[in-house]
């Protein structure tokens, strides 16, 4: 039987992995569950991603890239005349608007790096890239502190189920900015 040319298959597999993690968590992620979700043969998932770690790296990188695009789209973050704390707090509101599944998936994959060292460089890429962006408006140490604070606020909201409070975020971010 001739192979079908399917240039989108790898991307469909990554998208399916993200959906599986969103529905079942990391524990529900397997080559078989992703193949079923992507509607591809099981061999396709193992062809493109030899291990589940490889698949999680690709999924986390894709999630990170989506959030990086959101950050870059907020041009005011680079505008020295804008209120950085207010812009970052508004960014949090944007992340929490509507369905939280994407944010939950990103953090679940991000935290999976605790047990899966192969994910650590990808998790670090996000934090370093975001800090580099913020360092254009403040010093590098403050930029890293802002990233840590934003991560902490997001995790608290996700774990406790309380609504995101943009006013609170703006106030605590402003305190770190000084």
TrEMBL record:
**DNA-binding region per UniProt:** 30-49
Q: Which domain of life is it from?
A: Bacteria
Keyword DNA-binding applies: yes
UniProt keywords (A-Z) are: DNA-binding
Does the entry feature the keyword DNA-binding, yes or no? yes
Q: Name all HTH tetR-type domain ranges.
A: 7-67
Record's protein name: TetR family transcriptional regulator
Task: Tell me which species this is from.
Answer: Streptomyces ossamyceticus
């Amino acid at each position: 039987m001739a192979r079908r040319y399917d240039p989108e298959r790898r991307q469909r597999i990554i998208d399916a992995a993200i959906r599986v993690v969103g529905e079942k968590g990391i524990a529900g992620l397997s080559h078989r569950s992703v193949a079923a979700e992507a509607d591809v043969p099981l061999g396709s998932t193992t062809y493109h991603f030899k291990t589940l770690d490889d698949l999680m790296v690709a999924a986390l990188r894709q999630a990170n890239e989506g959030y990086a695009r959101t950050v870059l789209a907020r041009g005011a973050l680079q505008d020295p005349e804008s209120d950085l704390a207010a812009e970052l707090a508004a960014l949090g509101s944007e992340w929490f608007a509507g369905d939280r599944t994407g944010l939950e998936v990103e953090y679940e994959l991000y935290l999976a790096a605790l047990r899966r060292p192969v994910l650590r460089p990808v998790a670090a890429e996000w934090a370093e890239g975001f800090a580099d962006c913020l360092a254009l408006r403040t010093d590098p140490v403050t930029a890293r502190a802002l990233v840590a604070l934003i991560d902490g606020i997001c995790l608290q909201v996700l774990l406790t189920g309380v609504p995101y409070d943009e006013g609170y975020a703006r106030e605590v971010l402003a305190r770190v900015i000084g």
